[in-house]
Specification:
Blueprint: H1 2-14, H2 19-32, H3 38-50, H4 59-71, E1 83-85, E2 92-96, H5 98-101, H6 107-119, H7 126-142, H8 150-162, H9 172-178, E3 182-186, H10 187-198
Helix pairs in contact: 4-6, 6-10
Length: about 200
């Protein structure tokens, strides 16, 4: 019951985000990632609202995919941070695989936190998320940003939402510039289980 109420409160509070909150989030993201496009702003936003993109039903596949990603990626090729909050509210956190590569977090600990985050609690509906995104994009439209492929990305996002879906990949520009390798962890799980391992 507590998890259900938390999800309801999250959905309600997100719809009341202010233009200032949206503007602060978007400006901060673009300052940190100048090669980001609207697709990447959208991705951070839906990760904050919806969490992981799928429920996890196959733990073995999750583990195998993580091990493959770790085996084919060097820590020096990853971004320098161990974690960063998603979106406007930081309800979820991106935990970099750098933390595993450098021995800060055991791979199984990250996997368990990821699975618990993906499967725990009630997930908001895609319609809820679409309403939230429409609130966000109205503010972004008024910001006068010179993002490349802005209208094309905006139309693509709308087409995804019209299909009753919400998840997309990072833009090719973002992937090429920043080589993102991370897992999405619910903030309370991160604070309790992972953050203590990452502190000096």
């Amino acid at each position: 019951m507590k998890k259900i109420m938390s999800a309801i409160l999250l959905a309600a509070s997100c719809l009341t985000c202010t233009g200032q909150q949206v503007g602060t989030f978007v400006k901060g993201l673009l300052e940190q990632y100048p090669e980001a496009r609207l697709l990447d702003v959208y991705k951070s936003s839906f990760q904050d609202y919806m969490g992981a993109e799928h429920l996890v039903t196959d733990t073995a596949s999750v583990r195998a995919y993580l091990q493959q990603e770790l085996a084919t990626t060097e820590a020096d090729d990853m971004l320098s941070w161990y974690w960063e909050p998603c979106g406007i509210y930081g309800n979820y956190v991106r935990v970099s695989l750098r933390a595993v590569k450098e021995g800060k977090i055991d791979a199984d600990v990250l996997i368990n936190a990821f699975i618990a985050s993906a499967n725990g609690g009630e997930r908001p509906t895609v319609n809820d998320w679409a309403a939230q995104w429409h609130t966000i994009i109205k503010v972004i439209d008024q910001m006068g940003l010179s993002l490349p492929h802005y209208e094309q990305d905006k139309e693509f996002i709308d087409s995804v939402l019209e299909q009753g879906k919400y998840a997309i990949s990072h833009s090719s520009d973002y992937r090429e510039a920043y080589a993102p390798h991370y897992r999405i962890i619910r903030r309370d799980i991160f604070e309790q289980q992972l953050k203590p391992l990452l502190l000096p």
